[in-house]
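Dear support,

I submitted the protein below through the web form. The confirmation email said the job was done, but the results page showed an empty box. After a refresh the structure appeared. I'm attaching both so you can tell me whether what I see now is the final result or a partial one.
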Amino acid sequence: MFTGIIETTGEIAEISHSGSNIQFWISSSLSGMLKIDQSLSHDGACLTVEAIKDGMHQVTAIHETVSKTTLGSWKSGDRVNLERCLPMNGRLDGHLIQGHVDTTAVCIERKEAKGSWEFEFAFPKRFGHLIIDKGSISLNGISLTVFDLQKKHFKVAIIPYTFEHTNIPFLQPGKKVNLEFDMLGKYVDRILSLKG
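What the results page shows now:
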């Protein structure tokens, strides 16, 4: 379980393929502090640490993960947001995030707003019932608040700290991001669907 408060970014150092799986070696300031079998959020996708060496850690994305995320488009040199899982006695500064990406969205607009930034995203309409205005959403693992929600679009505002400590500066119109919708909304949706 994660909170969406990014600890640092990592750089994709090496990529290899094994069948439908993709292995990534990622260099970061966190890598040396990790343990084998530890869960770590990579741009919002929960992946298991498999190996650690020379300030890097290795993770594998299976076909299911690749099919629902942006991981298949990662290239060497790309920066990804990293967050370790929430300790049981920790603060919940963002919102509860499982690291199970639901879908991707496309950035369609980016603009500066006198000290902050606004980004607009297009997402698949079939997920529209899982987003609420002023609700929480995980975008590349970052806990953000939705505003100006439309049927297939929404906006988020980025404060300077988030802009400086995540991979948001590299996000330009046309680029995809990983989305995870609020877990509470998904449970309510499931309960209501079973009452039909």
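Response: this is the final, complete result; the empty box was a page-load delay. The chain is about 10% helix and 40% strand.
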